Amino acid sequence: MDQSSVTRIKELVEILNKAGRAYYSEGMSLMTDHEYDALYDELKRLEEETGVVLNASPTQHVGYEVVSSLPKERHPSPMLSLDKTKDREVLRDWLNGHEAVLSWKMDGLTIVLTYNQGRLLKAVTRGNGEVGEVVTPNARVFANVPQTIAFTGELILRGEAVITYEDFERINGEISGDDEKYKNPRNLCAGSVRQLNSEITAKRNVNFFAFSLVSAEGVDFHNSFMEELSWLSNQGFTVVEHHLVNPENILERVQYFADHVSTNPFPSDGLVITYEDVAYGRSLGRTAKFPRNAYAFKWQDELATTHLRKVEWSASRTGLINPVAIFDSVELEGTTVSRASVHNVSIVEELELGIGDEITVYKANMIIPQIAENRTRSGNLEIPSICPVCGGKTQIHESNGVKTLYCTNPSCQAKHVKAFTLFVSRDAMNIDGISEATMEKFIQKGWIHEPADIYHLSRYRNEIVTMEGFGEKSYQNMMERIEASRKVTFAKFLYALGIPNIGLSTAKLLAKEFQGSMEAIRRGSLSDFSSMDGIGEVIAQGIVDYFANTNNQKIIEDLLAEVEILPEETSMAGNSLEGLTFVITGSVEHFANRNELKDYIEARGGKTTGSVTSKTNYLINNDVTSNSSKNKKAKELGIPILSEEDFLQMTLTS
Q: Which numeric CATH code is attached to 3-50?
């Protein structure tokens, strides 16, 4: 036996298991699907050649341990993965003269749903195939999962939770840091389904596609897999697209799916074929890893050869600097591609990238551009020693064997994108048209170093109008909002500065206390601030420290040269709540949100704080009988708890 083959088997088992644990348990991708499949196929070939199969080999195990704080539950029987091929003729041979059902192989997170008495009882993820995570509250907010069905017996079915490409782009577009963006829709879906807060899941617009029925108490499906899927559809479930195939038409049906994969709104990494004759499929049994009643077909990647022209290094708010490969444009899956994320320094080194190298590229799942291979492997690409945004020194960090590049400068503008985004937000300077993602691009290009630079973006008009997502109209709208923001109230200006622990409500208190004078507030002492209601020693010290900082003083001076601070608007609503302090908790019904209710109170002379104390006059909570911590505290202190109806009645009659 060739000892080098055994050594290579051990290496592959370790590499693949590490990648598998990250993929299944943490929603992370340590390598591309193309790389994983190539290594897996190499391992399988070596095992067949040598007869050596390690107990830990991924060819022998279904999955990996789940790591999260969600409740765990063991599946009644293991959920096995499917054997797979990229050869269409293998599918026809596998049919062995029988009919089968061909459907999309969705690329998301497999979920098992249980219904009883017509209601959703339980939802459990596939997990490691033997133990899954209970995600019932999250499944209840999936966009298309029925809460009740007509069937009242026990029903157990399996399906795939997925997120559309459109929603993937939308959600990623709201995340500015490249390191915080989700790598693909599957990772986003996994993170969404496994949330501890179902409200977050609901906002992600997760969809569920049923792909098999486990059991339906007392229902006869006449031994037909097609009938099972049809019955699930009639119960209100969205069923994965499927077609009945036989040896004569299977190749034509595979081509049908191949023609539609690029326009499919949901991610798919292949097809699944299942025997139509359910009993026949079950009679075939299973191997240690695969059931024999179904088979998976994975798309053959369309590869294109091109040349690497440069690598862009993109800094983000955490300091992480990500490499993006720029290459000669090629046609892949019907679209023109010229760039692909390389993810980290480890992959740059593994591919031995160099400018001018001949590389092959492909689209993972026919969608996401990736580098498959570097044929030249010149390795002449230099890892930047300075940050592309601020010019500060960079440093390579290594964690769990993965190398990443970071900017070491704590003052790097890319790390403070949140502060700049706060500055332009609605409650601050109200400059619509500059999203967090746009702000990060402006900072990365070196156009914005301090807030006052926003008022000089017209210098970069020619570059901005050609940016993705921009044009002449978008540019003009943004500039109009920037000009409109030059006149601002003192409270909004203070809030826009991002002084630690100073929200809009506290900024309004400060504006009122110092009568709209920037000079007066800059001269304020620790006792001046700490003596104000709602401002303690810690917040007061933060205000003093902020105004004492020479860099902050320059920021303010530069801004005052650009904007005009207006006197605070005199309230037309009277002072019916003068001297009263309110705390708001829970959801609201008569107002758009709690901030709107706060504005209503402050417009009438009242004040709002976040905690119930002896100085609180009223707690507003629509659930007046709840046992929440704020309700308990209010009852202990004898503070009245008002519903919105009670509160509005009080303001209207006072």
A: 1.10.287.610
Task: Provide the mean pLDDT of the chain.
Answer: 85
Active-site residue list: 105
Residue ranges of the chain that CATH labels 1.10.287.610: 3-50
Q: Which amino acid is at 337?
A: V
Cα 375 off chain centre by:
34
Give me the mean pLDDT over the 526-530 stretch.
Answer: 88
Residues whose CB is less than 8 angstroms from the CB of residue 10 and which lie 6 or more positions away in sequence, other chains included: 54
The CATH architecture one would assign to domain 581-653 is 3-Layer(aba) Sandwich (3.40)
Phi-psi region of 598 (alpha: psi -120 to 50; beta: other; left: phi over 0): alpha
Residue 566 reports pLDDT greater than 80: yes
3.20.20.70, 2.60.40.1220, 2.40.50.140, 3.40.50.300: CATH of 304-407: 2.40.50.140
Residue span(s) of the chain under CATH 2.40.50.140 come to 304-407
User: Please, how many CA atoms are within 13 Å of residue 524, restricted to the half-sphere of its CB?
Assistant: 27
Residue 220 token pair: 């006869």
Name the β-bridge partners of 405. Answer: 321, 396
Return d(Cα 230, Cα 237) in angstroms, integer. Answer: 10
The answer to whether domain 72-298 has CATH 3.30.470.30 is yes
* pLDDT tens, residue by residue, 94-107: 999 999 999 999 98
pLDDT surpasses 60 at 376? yes
Range ranked top by mean pLDDT from 69-73, 243-247, 320-324, 472-476: 243-247
pLDDT in tens, 173-197: 776 544 567 777 888 898 889 888 8
Residues near 215 by beta carbon (within 8 Å), at least 6 away in sequence: 154, 155, 156
Cα–Cα distances in Å, from 49 out to 2, 3, 38, 56? 10, 12, 17, 18
Please tell me the least confidently modeled range out of 100-109, 444-453, 573-582, 635-644. 573-582
**How confident is residue 202, by pLDDT bands cut at 50, 70 and 90?**
confident
Q: Where in the chain is the domain with CATH 1.10.150.20?
A: 413-485, 488-566
Measured CA to CA, the distance from residue 261 to residue 305 in angstroms comes to 22
The answer to whether residue 571 scores a pLDDT higher than 50 is no
Question: 0.85 cut: is pTM over it?
Answer: no
Q: Which fold has domain 413-485?
A: DNA polymerase; domain 1 (1.10.150)
Concatenate the DSSP letters of all residues of 251-283 into one string.
HHHHHHHHHHGGG-SS-EEEEEEEESBHHHHHH
Average pLDDT, integer, range 46-73: 67
Distance (Å, whole) CA 650 – CA 265: 52
Q: What is the pLDDT of residue 653?
A: 63
Domain 488-566 has CATH 1.10.150.20: yes
- Secondary structure element (H or E) that encloses residue 357, with its range: none
Rounded to whole angstroms, how far apart are CA atoms 530 and 523?
14
* 373-376-378 Cα angle (round to 5): 115
